[in-house]
Amino acid sequence: MTDIARRSLTIEPDPALVREGPRHVSAAEMEDEVGFAEELDKVLGTASVKATAWLKQRKAMLDQLIAVRDKAIGLIRALSGENGSAVDGIQQVPTAEQTPGRPRNRLSRPAAHSKHRKRSRPPLSAEARGRIAAAQRERWAKVRNETKK
Q1: CA separation for the pair 53, 131 (Å, rounded)
Q2: What's the CA gap between 16 and 134, in Å, rounded?
Q3: Over the range 32-67, which residues count as b (16 or more CB within 10 Å of their CB) and which as e?
Q4: pTM for the whole thing?
Q5: Among the four 23, 41, 92, 93, which has the fewest Cβ within 10 Å?
C-alpha cells in the first residue's frame, strides 16, 4: 500500500479541536452567556408577539373583505332582479369555515352558457346525403385514377 493510501485510511483528530480535561468557565464568561440568552429571549418574544398580532390583523381584514364581497353580490342581485343571473360568472372564494366537497350555492358553479358547449345541427335530408356521397365517390375515383397512372 502506498504512503498516500495509508494517510487517507488513518483518521487523526485535529489537535486544535481536541480539549484535554474539563474546561474552566470564568464568571465573566458565564454572565456574558446568560446576558446573551436573556437578550435573545426578549427579541424572540417580541417577534412572536408581533407575528401573532399580524396574523390577527390579517384574519380581521379577510373577514371584512368577505363581508364587503357578500354585500356587493347581494346588491348586484337586488339590482338585476333576476335572482342573481348577473353574478353567475363570479367565482366565490371559499372561506375558512367552508368545507371541501360539492359547492352549496350557484355562485361557485361555472356559467351555464359556456363556450365549450356542443352545438347540435339539424338533420340532413336523404337527398342531401345522396349528393354528398356522390361527390365523395367522384373524389375517390379521381384519386384512384391518378394513382394508376
Answers
A1: 78
A2: 98
A3: eeeeeeeeeeeeeeeeeeeeeeeeeeeeeeeeeeee
A4: 0.32
A5: 23
